[in-house]
Design brief:
- This protein is mainly beta and 524 residues long.
- It has one domain (4-22, 29-522): Methylamine Dehydrogenase, Chain H (7 Propeller), CATH 2.130.10.
- The protein contains two helices and 36 strands.
């Protein structure tokens, strides 16, 4: 059934006046929850629900992703949900049963969403005034606490707060624009009111070791709890290549860390996060630069050491939908044996799978599978992967924010690829050539068998300039679209390479967008 509503034009005025008044008056009190403003000009009615509610079809024939003892529970701890960067949830998400959509206008993009042990939303949101850490009520999206992170300094595409993780003690471990790593904990007063406080930094060590025009991109713990990080580097910084590093916080000094660095070859940059295997029997830290796929391990003193590296086809140009010339995916671990990325091959990109063990007695390359239409193939978001299945979305055409304005959208495509039974190749299982995913980090619920993504259709003929964004569920077994829920209309609902998340209640989805955060909740 299709239901329509008119996007409100008046909702833009209130939040803008409120923000202006707050800035002028220097207000510090917690603001009320204000919905993200809908499209103001040229908006027409669009369906708010498309399709039918889903019937769960659990995915059970998979190996579970091991839990890191140094991170919050899987599904709740980071942008890609676990150390494997699998983008898979062990629990349920919305089924499209009378969903209700709410939002909070924070005038900032909330790229990574985590959930603490009380189910509250922890998120770093980056706006014009810099990044802030928020603690939000998971139901109302009301602000429970907020903490300003350094606003000056350098930042890469998604670094300095975009890639962070929640540890086993509910502390947010965040790279900052000051080339530091802050560990921030939640405390409560006698009445139970929460607030944030800084628990540890590397301020007296780490910023001195990293060039001033560099930025820490991502941070994660390995199988022993050692913190690893990467910096951006890049082809324009031939004197300052990307860095792979480790830090060990000093237990007796709140601003000191032991730091060790491993520079990559000159001209290599890193724009994505990385994967870690939390099982100490296997271990490994898996990093992709814009030239090569790497495995690192720590020596007994905690220094990063190169275990293996493999060049891939980085193509000859930056495609519309890519930000750099090279792989657009954070490495994703599969089961006990494999790691997968995409490449940037001309015409058609490939999903590439490698054997990840320190040594192999055959080719490290398992397979290369071309995806999407020639000339319209690019992806700059992490792959979803179980131990034998991979899903990749097409971001081709997402050149900038204008690419999805005034009825425009990007090339279609979501493709599932499975490893061959003998482990020596891979093949396409299905391709959805209808849905268009401009830029979101999609996720898979193993409990429902649904891949959740965030789509933007071509504008209908009766609403040619309406920019409608949908929370969309895909059947992972068949690739068919099951249902779509309208998140909102207009530029503030653009996900802009943020993630989509499922709440621990099993009935709620969240999407980080340019305006703040959107909540989609089943009421039945």
């Amino acid at each position: 059934m299709h239901i329509t509503r008119y996007p409100s034009r008046g909702v833009l005025i209130t939040p803008l006046l409120f923000i202006l008044g707050s800035v002028v008056a220097g207000q510090a009190q917690t603001p009320p929850v204000i919905p993200i403003p809908q499209q103001l000009f040229l908006a027409k009615p669009v369906p708010v629900f498309i399709g039918t509610p889903a019937v769960p079809n659990p995915i059970t024939d998979v190996l579970p992703v091991p839990q890191s003892p140094f991170m919050a529970p899987n599904g709740r701890n980071s942008l890609h949900l676990d150390g494997y960067q699998s983008d898979t949830y062990p629990y349920s998400g919305p089924l499209g049963n009378q969903p209700v959509v709410t939002s909070s206008f924070l005038a900032a993009e909330c790229g990574t969403v985590t959930f603490d042990s009380k189910g509250r939303v922890n998120t770093v949101c980056i706006g014009l005034l810099g990044p802030e850490l928020y603690l939000l009520d998971p139901d109302t999206l009301g602000i429970l606490a907020r903490f300003s992170l350094p606003s000056s300094g350098t930042t890469t595409t998604f670094g300095s707060g975009g890639y962070y993780f929640l540890d086993q003690l509910d502390r947010s471990v965040i790279p900052t624009r000051t080339r530091d790593i802050w560990i921030i904990k939640t405390v409560e007063d006698a009445s139970g009111k929460p607030s944030f406080m800084r628990d540890h930094t590397c301020a007296l060590d780490l910023p001195l070791r990293i060039p001033q025009d560099e930025s820490i991109q991502s941070v994660l713990p390995d199988a022993s709890g050692l913190l690893w990080f990467t910096t951006g580097g890049g082809a324009n910084k031939t004197e300052e290549p990307a860095i792979v590093g480790t830090v060990r916080p000093n237990p007796t000094h709140k601003n000191r860390c032991d730091v060790s660095l491993y520079p990559l070859p000159a001209g290599e940059g890193i724009q994505k996060s990385f994967a870690v295997d939390p099982d100490p029997a296997r271990g490994g830290v898996f990093i992709v630069s814009d030239h090569q796929m790497y495995r690192f391990d720590a020596d007994p003193r905690g220094n990063p050491t190169l275990t293996w590296n493999e060049p891939y086809d980085r193509g000859t140009s930056i495609k519309p939908g890519q930000i750099v010339q090279g792989s657009g995916t954070t490495p994703t671990l599969m089961g006990t044996d494999y790691v997968t990325i995409d490449d940037n091959a001309d015409s058609q990109i490939d999903v590439v799978v490698y054997r990840r063990a320190p040594q192999v007695n055959r080719s490290r390359l398992v397979c290369k599978q071309p995806v999407f239409e020639p000339g319209s193939s690019a992806s700059f978001n992490s792959l979803i992967a179980t131990d034998h299945s991979i899903s990749i979305e097409n971001n081709y055409g997402n050149l900038n924010l204008a690419s999805t304005l005034f009825g425009n959208t990007t090339a279609p495509g979501i493709t599932r690829i499975d490893l061959d039974d003998d482990g020596n190749g891979c093949h396409v299982v299905w391709s959805n050539t209808v849905e268009r995913v401009p830029n979101v980090v999609s996720q898979l619920s193993l409990a429902t068998g649904l891949e959740y993504t965030y789509t933007k259709d071509p504008s209908p003929s009766d609403a040619p300039y309406t920019d409608a964004w949908y929370f969309t569920a895909i059947d992972f077994a068949t690739g068919n679209t099951v249902f779509k829920v309208l998140a909102g209309t207009g530029i503030f609902f653009n996900s802009n390479y943020s993630g989509l998340y499922l709440g621990p209640d099993g009935k709620t989805g969240y999407v980080g967008v340019l305006g703040g955060i959107v909540r989609i909740h089943d009421t039945q």
